[in-house]
Amino acid sequence: MTLERQLAEIVGNAQVLAGGDLPAYEVDWRKRYRGRARCVVRPGSTAEVAAVVLACLEAGVALVPQGGNTSLVGASVPDSSGTQVLLSLARLNQVRGVDIANLTMTVEAGCVLQAIQEAAAAQGLLFPLSLAAEGSCTIGGNLATNAGGTQVLRFGNARELCLGLEVVTASGEIWHGLSGLRKDNTGYDLRDLFVGSEGTLGIITAATLKLYPQPAAVTTAMAALQSLDDAVALLSLAQARLGSGLTGFEVMNDFSLGLVRKHYPQLAQPLAGAPWTALLEQSDSEGEATATRRFESLLEAALERGLITDAAVASNLEQAHTMWHLRESIPLAQSEEGLNIKHDISVPVSAIPSFVASTDAALQRMVPGLRMVDFGHLGDGNLHYNVQAPEGVPAADFLREHEKAINALVYEAVMAHGGSISAEHGIGLLKRDALVTHKSPVALGLMRAIKQALDPRGLFNPGRLL
Ligand code: FAD
Ligand code: ZN
Fold first, then answer.
1. How far apart are CA 253 and CA 376, in angstroms?
2. Does the pTM exceed 0.85?
3. Cα separation of 339 and 73, whole Å?
4. Among 93, 107, 145, 175, which residue has the most ligand 1 atoms within 8 Å of its CB, making it the best to mutate?
5. Rounded to the nearest 5 degrees, what angle is found at the Cα of 374, between the Cα atoms of 370 and 377?
């Protein structure tokens, strides 16, 4: 019996799709990678996932797990060989339960992030993971990439929000690790091994997540800054004044916001023209009035100290949405502008100003006139440090000529500042070679040993990450 026939017996005929021309599954979000699957399989339960893995194991056929296919590093699509089975988790989309007193929620891997946020809100609770792809990415993908987003400063990455996992292993067994415990020191942490493994160690089928009380008020503000040094000082001041009430701190350089002005002129910009703009978010358990007062007093103190030159506090939800919308429109405006070279890097917050100053200068020496699209999660030391061709230079020529050298320069600078070449998007295919250059041989050896122990036949997502 063919593998396709076997798979159809497990999941039903309608849930095995012929590969070869299924762009929603075979082309990545940035349209940089176009693969071809042997077939696409859409199981509807954990037991079906386990049976699919077993069938593929016996046939010696590799599997590529996929959630919402929003990976930015080419980790979620098959290669072009036409031999890999694409395993879509999209149909595993049930909320299995909410434990209000324990502040936990158990969901299946294919649940869309926004649906999880809404299910928590329906119970008066908060699931704080938040990113621009939340309308289509899934919790399985968020955990497999240890996603970050805009609330990491207060709540941590996806890893910190996960208490337990259910996983189908490379031998087709099910690990029932759906614990809601906050304390459990019974040996190696298997959960944390699967989180961030980019689908190379096991298939996540469900997760138990941490919830938080909903804040009574969320307030948002923007501040105009002359430099990144001032932005770091403003962050310290905001942390001192707001404590754990500070839930977001983003920065954008003027060129980033200029791209938004150019491509989305209908979006009003409260503080146009400063070299840097900070976006701050505060969550408060008391209420709107207290939160706004605290925000205004913070911004007045920052003005007095000369850290900011202007500020705007959103006076209603719509204005707050507009501020976040501006920030989230930068990647889209950047795509409108044309191809560019993306870096998702982190360095210690204290090193951000010197990293940007010295790396900008080195890049200008390499290609005079190139333009920097700098924005990101300053509160986490994570910048999207992207490079656009000089005015008038065709983007494709620029990439062909300079992409390799620019990546090497930026990653060397990141390492020299004690940073990471991938802060939140993962390694996938895009950064696999860079990982080998910049990770220590000891760390790579341990990672390969773990892969060998958990997936000795190389069944899951071969060629990605390692
Ligand atoms: P996919 O893209 O389908 O898969 C991602 C990886 O996880 C692949 O390696 C895949 O094989 C694996 N995988 C998926 N599901 C499973 C599973 N159930 N079990 C095992 N492995 C699995 N990331 C951030 O961290 N922060 C951001 O702010 C952010 N913003 C983004 C904004 C946009 C507009 C887009 C398009 C992406 C953004 N991302 C961001 C990238 C981020 O990695 C994804 O949005 C998300 O975490 C991936 O979820 P997904 O369900 O789409 O996973
Ligand atoms: Zn980001």
1. 10
2. yes
3. 15
4. 145
5. 165
Q: Amino acid identity, residue 66?
A: Q
For residue 394, pLDDT over 90 is answered with yes
Measured torsion, CA atoms of residues 56, 61, 62, 66, in degrees rounded to the nearest 10: -50
* Residue pointed to by tokens 């989180």: 195
pLDDT in tens, 235-246: 999 999 999 999
198 contacts 463 by C-beta, under 8 angstroms: no
The Cα 261–Cα 453 span in angstroms is: 51
CA distance 201 to 459: 9
Q: How far apart are CA 280 and CA 299, in angstroms?
A: 10
| Amino acid (1-letter code) at residue 165 | L
Banded pLDDT at 450 (limits 50, 70, 90) = very high
DSSP secondary structure of 263-278: H-TTS--TTTT-SEEE
Tokens of 98: 């909410």
Please report the atom of ligand 1 found closest to the CA of residue 331: 34
Q: Are 423 and 382 in contact, with CB atoms under 8 Å apart?
A: yes
pLDDT tier for residue 377 given thresholds of 50, 70 and 90: very high
Closest residue CA from atom 21 of ligand 1: 199
φ, ψ at 46 (rounded to 5°): -60, -40
With a 6 Å cutoff on the Cβ, whether 92 touches ligand 1 is no
End-to-end C-alpha distance for the chain, whole angstroms = 33
> How far is 188 from 461, CA to CA, in rounded Å?
23
Distance separating alpha carbons of residues 47 and 11, to the nearest angstrom: 10
Q: Which of 390, 328, 387 has its CA nearest to residue 360?
A: 387
Residue with tokens 């072009």: 80
Distance CA 112, CA 67 (A): 9
CA-wise closest residue to 343 among 406, 398, 400, 437? 406
Tokens of 65: 């797990």
